[in-house]
Write a structure and sequence with these properties.
The chain has 323 residues and is α/β, with parallel strands linked by helices. It has 2 domains: 3-172, 3-Layer(aba) Sandwich (Peroxisomal Thiolase, Chain A, domain 1); 180-322, Thiolase/Chalcone synthase (Peroxisomal Thiolase, Chain A, domain 1, 3-Layer(aba) Sandwich), CATH 3.40.47.10. The chain contains 10 helices and 13 strands. The protein has helices spanning 21-27, 32-39, 53-68, 92-100, 116-129, 153-156, 215-236, 254-264, 275-278, 285-295; strands at residues 3-13, 17-20, 43-46, 77-81, 106-110, 135-143, 161-172, 180-188, 196-198, 211-213, 246-249, 304-311, 315-322. The strands form 4 sheets. Strands 1-7-6-4-5 form a 5-stranded mixed beta sheet, sandwiched between helices. Helix 7 packs parallel to helix 8 (254-264). The structure holds oxa(dethia)-CoA. Residues 30, 34-35, 38-39, 114, 153-154, 157, 215-216, 218-219, 222, 252-253, 256, 280, 310-311 line the site of oxa(dethia)-CoA.
């Protein structure tokens, strides 16, 4: 029997503290005007000192499970995407597993930076379709504020903290219009490591390090690869851009999102954009945007939703979901 991974709940969590562009402009040589015009960002959330990635992940996961009418004991699998784990090891996923009261199955992290949610979704979807698990929780959670160089105006203004999660259930595939994940498409190119990386790590320096980025080159690569992978995902399913109800992109820069929409010929009002309030929350940005658009009724059952992201590695990917 063919199976498809249906989304049965989603949830998001943002830390309480809001840091506006104006607040950053008081300590850095930057301005609200520059940040808004070049990125679309107006403010970001920053985790409290006591708040860890696993805490944000747990809150988002609890909300997703509640919406699905489930508890941790219903889960077989947790795949958590993060580049800012609580510890070098064990994974942040096992901490969430314990807090959710999930005592069976498996929980692990995947690391594809800003593309992490798509990579985690693909991993869980594959496990569900193969019958390795029946119910999976996919989480994107980050505390990027901990790896930013707060003196580097070229990077520290761009990111925020947060978490989002979806619950997937394996269901029999009933015809081509069945709800669920239609396909996922993953790519990476390690030759582009040096344009977006962290300059520390357990093996390299024994310290956590700080994010470094050649923004202009990442921008150029993002528009090119995202357009390609979106085309690939549509072609794999015999779809046209006009078939899509929503594009839910990774939220790195409104100019990247607009450029991809233009290349696709997709109307901007079919795009879910949260960057103004969330900034770039890396692996959390797509599930946070999904949670917002599902909660406010924009994304409804039966809608065709395209997800896409690009991040350090470089990594990039896309997925199409019939909601
Ligand atoms: O999520 C992972 C993927 N990441 C991305 O997709 C990010 C992709 N890159 C970008 O979004 C953009 O390249 C940035 C937002 C990072 C930068 O925008 P840009 O239009 O590419 O600016 P730039 O780096 O070419 O810099 C233009 C100018 C420079 O000054 P000069 O050399 O022209 O005098 C920068 O020093 O803007 C300056 N600048 C700033 N000015 C005020 C850089 N950061 C700031 C700042 N405030 N925060």
């Amino acid at each position: 029997m063919s199976l498809r991974s249906q989304v049965v709940g989603c949830g998001g969590y943002l830390p309480e503290r809001i840091v506006t562009n104006e607040e950053l402009a008081r300590r850095l040589d930057t301005s609200d005007g520059w940040i808004r015009q070049r990125t679309g960002i107006g403010e970001r959330r920053i985790a409290a000192d006591s708040e860890l990635t696993s805490d944000l992940a747990y809150e988002a996961a609890s909300r997703a499970l509640q919406r699905a009418g489930m508890s941790g004991s219903d889960l077989d699998l947790i795949v958590l995407a993060t580049a800012t784990p609580d510890h070098t090891f064990p994974s942040t996923a096992v901490k969430v597993q314990a807090r959710l009261g999930m005592k069976r199955g498996a929980a692990f992290d995947v690391q594809a930076v800003c593309s992490g949610f798509i990579f985690a979704l693909a991993t869980a979807d594959n496990a569900l379709r193969l019958g390795q698990a029946r119910t999976a929780l996919v989480i994107g959670a980050e505390t990027f504020s901990r790896i930013l160089d707060w003196t580097d105006r070229g990077t520290c203004v761009l990111f925020g903290d947060g978490a989002g999660a979806v619950v997937l259930n394996a269901a029999p595939l009933e015809g081509p219009a069945a709800r669920g994940v239609l396909s996922t498409h993953l790519h990476s190119d390690g030759r582009l490591h040096d344009i977006l990386y962290v300059d520390g790590g357990p093996s390299l320096t024994g310290t956590t390090g700080h994010l470094r980025m050649e923004g202009r080159e990442v921008f150029r690569q993002a528009v090119q690869h995202l357009s390609e992978v979106v085309d690939e995902a549509l072609a794999a399913n015999g779809l046209q851009p006009s078939d899509l109800d929503w594009l839910v992109p990774h939220q790195a820069n409104t100019r990247i999102i607009d450029a991809v929409c233009r290349k696709l010929g997709l109307a901007p009002n079919k795009t879910v954009v949260t960057i103004e309030r969330h900034a770039n929350t890396s692996a959390a940005s797509i599930p946070l945007a999904l949670d917002e658009a599902v909660s406010d009724g924009r994304i409804r059952p039966g809608h065709l939703v395209l997800l896409e992201a690009l991040g350090g590695g470089l990594t990039w990917g896309a997925g199409i979901v019939r909601w």
